[in-house]
């Protein structure tokens, strides 16, 4: 990557000062004209494409940069209110968290796709081609014949080489964001791009070094406009890329392009695209070492997904094998299918500590087996309430996205499970101290919980630091975790949603590790009122973990194939340990151990606590400091303090 291009877009951000706003109230205009939602989406796309001003940096290879900084809503507030009376609106109501089929359109060209498009899609194709023609004209004015030659071919016609394929992808991806879709993922990039890459490499078009430079230029394109994209925090925009994994015949597909992607991400140190590695028991240690070299730079990726577990779990859920073997991840970690998936992978969440606390309070005077039986009923009741609240799901039509989808074959809904470790720890503590050892009376426990342990610091210490905890090697806590996981899966198994799909139980939390925790008083695991849960499928923040091995063994102790909405075990390592080549191998071996034990997903972070403290005090000096939050990474200084504090509170491991 040429440093001047990097500085222009990332450090100095000069392009942001050149943006303009769309001041028109398009929703009101469209309402007055009585336009359908699909026509509104088409017209807005035409308007925004027409407003875009082509700008090309003299040294960049992959072009298209947003110059219009906002997308006016296509519906008015009154229209939204009317729709919401009878419909369930997920998040913003616009299509999100899908993995389009880029490969087919890149191989055909938009003119060929246009032949079978509807009237709205035809006009959108014409609008984006017109914008690309204006970019071609600008390139010719600048003397950039290389850019002009690429845009002469794509997107009208099929890509013939690696650079044209990358530029075509950028055009399609740009178009999805401009349409208003969000959390647009990249999919199995190293698989559908490899034929173009391989052909050029074999023809001697690129050396390894020049190919890497082109990949870096392409990666930079994900970061030009990302501040305009939808997300809870900056960085939470879902541009997830999947590398490696097996094919239908079971062959490992990690290739030279996969390797260059890891290297490009490591060199650029940018939060997009977010790298995910598919691995299995067949994956050699050398690939884990390459992944660990990327972890070393502190971006919070790659995130690992275990093909041995995920593919089995997806087929068990009803996904066809040829689709399951092609799985990718959504914005964070949820498993989705490219090209044919229409899943809503993050539609709701169960607050496991809250459910567990309720059952403990209502049943602690009963036999423990009765308590557990009622816990299972309560989990089912909670899942039923979620299912019944979600009906008549409606999205604003997305004509351009539909161009990149063969079918809406899968319409499954995913539910997160927040605070599983906290809930399991509470159950294990109650069983041990109230039922088995009778060390704590019912009255004392409830009184302590009601007072936030204010008058019983001894009990707080016992429950917080001495009681069984997931991650510590406690069979009792791990067994309770398994019970929660299986009960969650049982509660959703065989149920059909309003779109004819299934319900998927998961181990992720998204932002609920803060949101759900804020709503909850003290719990029997020694957690104080409002104190956050561990993120995703991870121990509580105050669990005394001996080391990463016990953590891995705890969170791979149970069958995870029935909890296939995803949600990784998250391990934090002190950044200093990655300086040693020997430790790189040790961390890689830990990841391999996790996979061999049947873990489903894993993410590792290299964290520097002192740097984060300094960044809180002097944010202007740490603008490029990146941390992993849950399924996404972000610039630390742009996070809300709650997220900053949670990252700083997580346990750091060594090896």
Note down, in words, how this protein is organized:
This protein has 655 residues and is an alpha/beta fold. The chain folds into 3 domains: 1-184, no CATH class; 191-333 and 575-655, no CATH class; 344-567, no CATH class. It has 28 helices and 13 strands. The strands form 4 sheets. It has a 6-stranded mixed β-sheet. It is globular.
Keywords, separated by commas or semicolons:
655 residues, alpha/beta, six-stranded mixed beta sheet
Portion in strands: 5-15%
**Helix/strand class:** alpha/beta
| Count of DSSP-assigned helices | 28
Q: What is the averaged pLDDT score?
A: 95
Number of strands: 13
The overall number of domains is: 3
Q: Specify the oligomeric state.
A: single chain
Tell me roughly what share of residues is in helical segments: 40-55%
CA-based gyration radius: 25 Å
User: How far apart, in Å, are the first and last alpha carbons?
Assistant: 33 Å
Major sheet: order of its strands?
A: 1-2-3-10-9-13
Shape: globular
Question: Which regions are unreliable across 5 or more consecutive residues at pLDDT < 50?
Answer: none
Largest sheet descriptor: 6 strands, mixed
């Amino acid at each position: 990557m040429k440093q001047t291009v990097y500085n222009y877009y990332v450090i100095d951000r000069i392009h942001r000062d050149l943006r303009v706003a769309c001041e028109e109230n398009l929703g009101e205009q469209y309402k007055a004209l009585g336009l359908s939602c699909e026509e509104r989406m088409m017209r807005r796309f035409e308007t925004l494409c027409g407003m875009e001003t082509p700008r090309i940096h003299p040294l960049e290879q992959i072009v298209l940069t947003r110059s219009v900084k906002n997308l006016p809503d296509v519906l008015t507030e009154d229209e939204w209110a009317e729709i919401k009376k009878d419909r369930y609106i997920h998040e913003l109501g616009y299509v999100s968290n899908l993995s389009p089929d880029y490969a087919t359109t890149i191989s055909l060209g938009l003119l060929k796709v246009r032949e079978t498009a509807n009237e709205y899609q035809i006009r959108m194709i014409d609008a984006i081609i017109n914008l690309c023609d204006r970019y071609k004209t600008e390139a010719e004015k600048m003397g950039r014949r290389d850019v002009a030659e690429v845009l002469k071919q794509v997107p009208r016609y099929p890509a013939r080489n690696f650079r044209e394929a990358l530029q075509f992808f950028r055009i399609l991806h740009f178009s999805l964001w401009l349409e208003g879709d969000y959390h647009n993922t990249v999919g199995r990039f190293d698989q559908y791009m490899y034929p173009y890459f391989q052909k050029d490499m074999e023809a001697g078009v690129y050396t390894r070094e020049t190919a890497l430079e082109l990949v870096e230029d392409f990666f930079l394109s994900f970061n030009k406009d990302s501040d305009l994209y939808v997300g809870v925090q900056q960085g939470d925009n879902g541009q997830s890329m999947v590398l490696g994994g097996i094919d239908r015949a079971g062959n490992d597909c990690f290739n030279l392009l996969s390797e260059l992607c890891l290297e490009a991400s490591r060199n650029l140190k940018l939060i997009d695209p977010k790298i995910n590695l598919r691995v299995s028991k067949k994956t050699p240690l050398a690939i884990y070492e390459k992944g660990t070299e990327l972890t070393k730079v502190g971006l919070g990726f790659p995130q690992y997904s275990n093909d041995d577990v995920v593919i089995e779990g997806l087929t068990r859920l009803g996904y066809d094998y040829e689709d399951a073997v092609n799985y990718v991840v959504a914005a964070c970690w949820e498993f989705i299918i490219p090209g044919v998936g229409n899943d809503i992978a993050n539609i709701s969440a169960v607050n496991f500590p809250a459910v567990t606390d309720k059952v403990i309070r209502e049943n602690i005077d009963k036999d423990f087996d009765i308590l557990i039986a009622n816990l299972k009923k309560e989990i089912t009741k909670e899942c039923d309430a979620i299912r019944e609240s979600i009906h008549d799901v409606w999205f604003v039509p997305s004509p351009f996205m539909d161009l990149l989808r063969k079918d809406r074959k899968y319409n499954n809904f995913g539910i997160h499970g927040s605070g599983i470790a906290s809930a399991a720890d509470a159950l294990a503590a109650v069983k041990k101290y109230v039922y088995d050892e009778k060390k704590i009376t019912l009255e004392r426990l409830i009184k302590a919980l009601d007072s936030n342990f204010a008058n019983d610091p001894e009990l707080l210490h016992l429950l917080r630091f001495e009681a069984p905890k997931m991650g510590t090697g406690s069979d009792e806590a791990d067994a309770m975790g398994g019970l929660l996981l299986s009960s969650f899966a049982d509660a959703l198994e065989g149920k059909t949603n309003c779109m004819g799909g299934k319900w998927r139980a998961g181990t992720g939390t998204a932002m609920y590790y803060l949101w759900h925790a804020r709503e909850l008083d003290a719990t029997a695991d020694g957690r104080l009122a409002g104190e956050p849960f561990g993120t995703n499928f991870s121990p509580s923040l105050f669990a005394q973990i001996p080391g990463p091995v016990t953590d891995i063994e705890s969170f791979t102790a149970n069958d995870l194939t029935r909890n296939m909405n995803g949600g990784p075990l998250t391990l934090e390592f002190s950044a200093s340990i990655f300086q040693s080549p020997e430790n790189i191998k040790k961390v890689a071996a830990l990841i391999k151990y996790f996979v061999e034990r049947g873990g489903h997903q894993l993410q590792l972070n290299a964290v520097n606590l002192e740097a984060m403290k300094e960044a809180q005090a002097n944010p202007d000096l740490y603008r490029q400091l990146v941390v992993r939050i849950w399924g996404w990474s972000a610039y630390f200084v742009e996070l809300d303090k709650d997220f900053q504090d949670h990252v700083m509170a997580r346990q750091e491991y060594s090896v």
